[in-house]
What does this fold into?
Amino acid sequence: MSIFDSMQINASGLSLERLKLDTISTNIANVNTTRTEDGEGPYLKKEVVFEESFKQVETSLAGQGTEKSFGVKPTEIRENTDDIVMEYNPTHPDANEEGYVQMPNVNMADEMIDMMTTLRTYDANVTAMNASKEMLTKALQITIG
Amino acid sequence: MNVDALFNSLVSGPAQTGLTSGLNEQSTEATNGLSSFSGMLENAMSSLNEQQVAADQGVQDLITGNTDNLHNVMIQTSEAQLSLELALQLRNKGLEAYNEIKNMQF
It folds into this structure.
């Protein structure tokens, strides 16, 4: 249904923001996690990688079988390996011989800013979707008169 | 919503009964699958119903926990609502045209 395309495009944005917020939640939840399931080092900050999504269209407007930009799609969830800090804490169970612990590279301030950006982007997608719904509702009122 | 098909089925409907023969012979080949006005209406109604059922199923999936995307359910219900409103407007217009013809005085 092509008249609902704009809503579906925003829906992909909403799904992406949900996924981003999930990863931010995971990062915040693991802000002090010093061991992971594989036993190698501390928790690593996770980031969603995404790209523009395309869809095959066969409309007379865009020509035969051309690609049309159709929202956004996540490609992978990447682990960030930068800035693992060593913290001196000899009583920690994961401390090495010198008493240092590898702490996760999650920065709480960064996560909070990412969270606000995600929230606002979700909001913007909802606003755009409501605008397209309002347009369709307005178009339906053309017949009344 | 294919307006051309709607138009073709509207003009070719009476042409098949011979009432307006000679008016548009070329438009009959474009109406395969939508051979009559009632057939087209039936198609539209069944797709409308499919949308309502999909929205219903979406709400049920959300309540039972089979889906975790609240926004997709909201979009589905919005689409169903808009489709129903469109069908309602088309019905109103069709009824209006029918009444207009019915009230014709000769």
